[in-house]
Amino acid sequence: MKRHALSTRIWHWINALSVIVLFMSGLNISNAHRRLYWGDWGFDPSTAWLFVPRFPGWATIPNYYSLAGARDWHLLMAWVFSLSLLLFLIAALINGHLRRDIATRASEWRVAPISRDIRQHLRLDFGGHSGRYNSLQKASYGLVTLILLPLMILTGLTMSPAMNAAWPFLLDLFGGRQSARSIHFICAWLLFGFFIVHVVMVLLSGPIRQLRDMITGGHRDEAA
Amino acid sequence: MKRRNVLAGLAALFTAGCTKIGKTDWFADVIDATGRLNRAAHRALGGEQALAPEFTKADVSPFFRGNGSIDVDTDAYRASSANGFADWQLSVSGLVQKPLSLSLDEIRALPQRTQITRHDCVEGWSAIAEWTGPQLSTLLAMAGVDDSARFAVFRCADTLNGGNYYESVDLLDAHHPQTIIAHLLNGEPLPIINGAPLRMRIERQLGYKHAKYLTGIELVASLDDIGEGKGGYWEDRAGYTWYAGI
């Protein structure tokens, strides 16, 4: 059996590309109004809960300030990102990836196995390449694919005045457009944190093999 | 520090490529198609005449920010303003059976709609206010729109960076129940920073569509010959998308 299903591999790389473009064009959009608020409305510094720094050109798409250019990339890639996530989740439900590899069992939420996994990680011992995820991997992949990425889509839609007319319940769900904007920003940085940890983990656990397996599929070691 | 530099270097390389792609003609075509897709998706999901959420007086923000043009720098406008805009005329022209020219009194005498809505700037901020004015559909019915008309173009008194401000919407948004020609903001005549004496409200789209200092509504079959052909001041000047529902 392959370590990574074909659908998982295709999605992984499309998702990586679209999320990077979304993040970097999002930083350019953030530069247009560098304050965050809670609730329905917000424009004044006195009601802001966060003053966001200006992001430099090397971190934004395009590489100079252009709200129009950044929105072009952002709204185009939002389609690629959303549709590929939807197809991946459907495939992961059908092929058992979610149930087998991501879903956790009650027995995994005890202190002993979690602290064992944390101690192993701290020793940079990632348990070989069995293809099975430990509790920390399950929790982080589950959090990202089932919570953070869908939240990015929903909070993004909530910022659209036309979507507010079509699906007004989204405003109630997030507590208003400016709250949705704030949650969008927070989740974007949580995803950036995941990206950094994910890349560091790959670099520490045999990057050539990890990259190769995410392209060719690799083999799941059933005996492990 | 070195690793951070590697990450910054990779990001810089990546965005340089994206920036180059962003300047190609084919990318512009893809973006135009995305705009049409967004508009179709929004209307498919909510219905063509879905209403923007309306709020209560308790939700109104304490001040309504003025952005873009916040005044009109002409003697004629200053004189008109000093005179309470008594001489202001709003024309309805172009592909109509009966062109109109209406004074503020005539506009106030039409059936009115009052709505408390949220205004979203493309930059990201929002403000909530109560707007009052006749529905654009009332004026369009009075003028009688020709079958050949496809867009309503909003002509404005203000200039920005030397260019005439204008905007446009399709006839579906023009006939939307919440598309009104506002002359009151929170029950008072429009302040100058917010577009006195008249401004459009296009509630399902971003702020730059809500043309201020409105002087005329022109019905046209094509936007190609208006301004630089992209349907609005910011569309021509800065490349903002014509459809601004997101």
From TrEMBL, chain A:
Gene3D superfamilies named among the record's database cross-references: Transmembrane di-heme cytochromes, Chain C (1.20.950.20)
Membrane disposition: Multi-pass membrane protein
Transmembrane segments: 12-30, 73-95, 141-163, 183-204
Keyword field contains RNA-binding: no
InterPro entries: Cyt_b561_bac/Ni-Hgenase, Di-haem_cyt_TM, Hydrogenase_cytochrome, Ni-dep_Hydgase_cyt-B
Domain (Cytochrome b561 bacterial/Ni-hydrogenase) ranges: 3-217
A Gene Ontology cellular-component term: plasma membrane
Pfam families associated with the record: Ni_hydr_CYTB
GO molecular function, one term: electron transfer activity
GO biological process, one term: respiratory electron transport chain
Keywords carried by this UniProt record: Cell membrane, Electron transport, Heme, Iron, Membrane, Metal-binding, Transmembrane, Transmembrane helix, Transport
KW Metal-binding (keyword) present: yes
Compartments in which it is found: Cell membrane
Family listed: Belongs to the HupC/HyaC/HydC family.
Protein name as annotated: DUF4405 domain-containing protein
Organism: Croceibacterium xixiisoli
From TrEMBL, chain B:
Source species: Croceibacterium xixiisoli
The protein's name: Molybdopterin-dependent oxidoreductase
Taxonomic path: Bacteria, Pseudomonadati, Pseudomonadota, Alphaproteobacteria, Sphingomonadales
UniProt-listed PROSITE patterns: PROKAR_LIPOPROTEIN
Stretches assigned to the Oxidoreductase molybdopterin-binding domain: 86-221
Gene3D superfamilies per UniProt: Oxidoreductase, molybdopterin-binding domain (3.90.420.10)
